[in-house]
Amino acid sequence: MKNSPLFNVFKRELWRIADSRTLQFAAVAGPIISFLIIALTFSSGVVNNLPVAIVDNDNSQFSRKVMQLIDASPVAKVQCFSDINEAYRQMKQGSIGAIVELPANLERDIVKMQTPDIALFINNANVIKGGLLYSGIYKTLATINGGVKINISMKQGLTYSQALDNVQPVGVDTHLLFNPYGNYSYYLTLSLLPLMVVVFAFFVTVYALGKELKTGTAGELMRVSHNSVMVAVTGKTLPYTIILFLNMVLMNLILFRVLGTPLNGTLVVLLFSEFLIIVVYQLVAIALLGLTSNMRLTLSLGSAYTLMAMTFAGITFPTFAMPQVAKIFSWLFPYTFWIKIFTGETIKNRPLFTSVPEFMVLLMFILISLLMLKPLKRKLTNSKYWGRS
To answer: Which of 72, 192, 240, 248 is the most exposed place for a label (fewest CB within 10 A)?
Structure first.
């Protein structure tokens, strides 16, 4: 075993890692630092205390009650303005997310059983923040409106139950599945943390193998591997596969122990999928390097390829709602298929057989990438490809 070509390439790569701070950072420190930054960013889980301007043109007891109820909403932190123009100016500057304008004679109109109009302005430049503000404020105003109607109906002689039926003739029994608390870390960190491992898996593979071409040590690598490109690639990438998989294990601890993300599926399946996605992106990196034989160009292409995966994975915008061209384009990214397995084993608890198509697609990426080993061998053994940046 100790004299086998595979072991010799593996040992050679360990020495290269020990001698390179770049490889150490990309394989070990980089993923860990990114985990900590993302985990701290989304540690609160739920967005709250977004600034909301209240313009009170009534200055009545009822209008002050409305302000208190809006301020009590977890999503809103109320700031009082006397002028709608000043509030609107603050919104244009980005310091205010929403404006609620309470009309003059608000309390008087309610007492007279008239219907006053409360104006709500939402800054929807950030769709997520705008949606949260609209939902939170609208629910508060709807609750106030319902309470007023119940009080009016009871003054007209109806019982509370009858008044409630008038206000809400059809009851809605709502059940929020998979993420009942609206916790952002349940899907943002769930997708961002593994994406960091994927990015570093791609980069470190390209850098480690591309360095052999750039510095002209590719010939030595092939000699140690007894001129077997499969042995050379396996022995060279295996240390990073192990290190990155350990990073995935650390990521799991952060997700499930620190951030409290649900783990409803099978841990063994989850770990196997994590190991598989690392191998897939390593092989994709090798295939792309085999096509270009240029480390700098491959790193540039890889930065776009790996980071665009988040956009087309259906996390922030559902894949089924994308145009057909975008859906087809999303199939170019292994991450698109893997994230379905990952979320299925964490928050959704999908039956394992439903993830079989995604596993098969990942295996197809592996097989397609292996086809590039032959041209890669030609470039590793031919000195005319060495010395390129």
So the answer is: 72
